[in-house]
Amino acid sequence: MPREKVVRIWDEREVVYTPKRWRYLWEKREKALAIMERLEGFDPQLYGSVARGDVRKDSDIDIFIPFRVPSYLIELALEGLVRRRKIVMATPRHLVKGVIGIDEETTVTFPLIEPTDRELEFYRWGGMVDLWGVKTKQRVPGVNKKLILIVPTEKGHIEREVIGREPEVARTLGVSIDIVTERVHVLTRRDSIGRTGIYTDEEVPDWMTFEEALKVIADRDPNVRRKVRERGGV
Length: 234
Description:
- By secondary structure, the chain is α+β, with helices and mostly antiparallel strands.
- The protein has one domain (13-218).
- The protein has helices spanning 19-38, 49-52, 71-77, 117-126, 131-135, 166-173, 177-193, 210-220, 222-231; strands spanning 13-16, 45-47, 61-64, 84-89, 97-101, 106-111, 128-130, 142-143, 148-152, 156-161, 200-203.
- A 7-stranded mixed beta sheet has the order 7-2-3-6-5-4-11.
- α8 (210-220) crosses α9.
- The two termini are 34 Å apart.
């Protein structure tokens, strides 16, 4: 899928959902709910467009576990559903994560080292809702990859530009101004110089646990090794 670019809108605008768009949303929510119920003991969070509501037919279903837990417990809870297993680290400064692919549109992500408050704020920035919120059909505000704040309404959502409204966006999302300014900088810079790729994106062999695979990566990569030592891990 082509990467979405930052757009500028000079005033807020309302988007009214069609019946088809509502159907896409609730179908994806039902799919997410079935997986989150399996993960109930790990405080699973649904994040991104399916948490906000501004979905398309090809929108991904992204579920995040907000604390470190032995990977075998997650895989046991998802028994029969696991299709792909990867370790991902966006840059040497970012969180090391395990990613379980359920199907082409659905992933479960979890930290392999202790996450910082800033790293957890990243998920609230995009919109994050817990299991109870999914069960009760709550939608939450969040910012999309075009740097547009999505605020849910009964008919659909309202869009507001983030640039120039950073303090308001931070208050709306309940996050620090630091994460807002960081994301604005990252996404606008990415538009100007292009995406440079993901630092670590490696498949985990069937015969290895995530923790064993992380140790292999850490043994050869000093940046990963430093992260593991700083924040716990293998």
